[in-house]
Amino acid sequence: LEELRVDVKAKISAMDYLSDAQKQDFASKVDAAVTKTAVSDLLVNASATNGLEKAKSEATTEINNLKYLSTDAKSEFTAKVAAAKAKDAIAPIVSDANTRDALIGLQNDASAKGKPLTYISADQKAEAVAQIKATTTASAIKPISDVAVKAEAVAKELRTAKDASLEKAKGYTHVSDTIKTTATTAIEAATSKDDVDKLIAHLKVDEDNAISKELADAKVVANTTINNLKYLSTDAKSKLTAKVAAAKAKDEIKPISEAAVKDEAVAKELSEAKDAALKTAKGYTHVSNTIKTTATTAIEAATSKDDVDKLIAHLKVDEDNAISKELA
After folding, report:
1. What is the C-alpha radius of gyration for the chain, rounded to an integer number of angstroms?
2. Is 1 a residue whose pLDDT tops 80?
């Protein structure tokens, strides 16, 4: 019996995972045992306890080496391991720890993928991350991520539509600033691409109406200017106002008005030249009435100042000749 005690205590002392206190406890029980059977049973118990402690040590190491579990979570699991009374109770604890760690890893990955999303709002991102962090199974993560990705696509489409519409609005230079500002403010506040499309379409109608009004107003001004011209003939005015009426854009009207003013200046010059020539002709009292009438009729019908100057110059020659003849 004594030899068995020595042998068993040596084996217990060699066990790697028993604490000194545990070894001492078993050694004391071996010393107190009065039968070989009792001593052998103590060796079996010590071996079982050593195996349990080994399993606890390995489980604790594995849990502490997990990548994603927090320190508190690791402490929670290792406390459960430490409290385990049998090896069979340890494996489920380790399995749960690994499952939790893997889930956290998936949550972190999914949350990280949400960071590059640039079109959904910060609140939407935060909500998605909170939902992901609250999941208890891996299968629950993907649907949340899918919703965020879909929301990102919708938000991107909306932002793209807004940018395109705002760029178009910049080109609308005829509509009033008040109308344009109201429209662009509404576009920025729009929550759907359909609303954006409707708003920019309405602004386009306002722009077209403004262009039409500018054209109509410009035509009124041009026609008034043309009809008030003093020297242009009725026929010339009619031709010019017809061009104004046919104009499709405001920019087409200015050249017509400028041409009318230029024609008026020419007509005025011609009229003044005719008046001066006819007045001069009245002073020619020696030339025959027939020659004078022919000349003044031609002067009235002349279409250029140059023709008027030539005609009165010819009449002057006729007057000089008549004076010379009378003298002779």
Report:
1. 55
2. no
